[in-house]
Hints:
alpha/beta; Glycosyltransferase 2-like domain-containing protein; transmembrane
Amino acid sequence: MNLSAVVLTKNEEKSIDRTLSSLTFCDEILLLDSNSTDRTQEIAKKYKTRIQKRDLNNNFAGLRNYGLQEAKGDWTLFIDADEVVTKELADEIREAIRNGNFSVYYLKRRDYFWGRELKHGEVKKVREQGIIRLVKKNTGKWEGDVHEWFDSSSKTGRLKNFINHYPHPTIAEFLKDVNFYSTLRAKELHKKGKRVNVFGILLYPAFKFITSYLLRGGFLDGSAGFAYSFIMSFHAFLVRTKLYQYRNLANT
């Protein structure tokens, strides 16, 4: 078996059909489901997906590493439940595997928010440089509880076509995600002994907004660009506020 796709899910019935239909070019689809209570697993079965129930345990790297271990393919493609592999990228992935020039690949990603493609600001880096998502067996491992990265000493390549990303379909879901991920990030920083003061809580989010919205051109994406930059700056505020809270609780 040549290529496995690994997808992490929890209550993804609104998006999982679109995601899995874009992965039919893979030899295997392994879905790691964290106790979904909706129709996620039912929908996934239409695609002959191999489903395993596996708790996240607030550790995305650990779950991805489990998927890397369980996947039967020589290569593993990691796709989130709100992402879609374009046909052009699917063809390019197959060609890259046949050529075997690299063992680890960066895949570029296009983000869509409020029905608009974002090209600037917060998402500019992953749009232009990509993120590691296609890896050969035994070339490295995932690190980090949240905002995880692939640690590898292997030679890396970069594909030119895109993953399409459709996150946060509503503001309510965006804020829910921001609250969840900021908690994980604050706990991760707390475990590492990181500290923050009141000035950091106040100044860093403002600096992040100015950088994303003004310096990286988020304003060019209209109202969607403003909302995205503002909410991600709020995420930075929550991370630091929660970290400050955890430090204070630990000292009482």
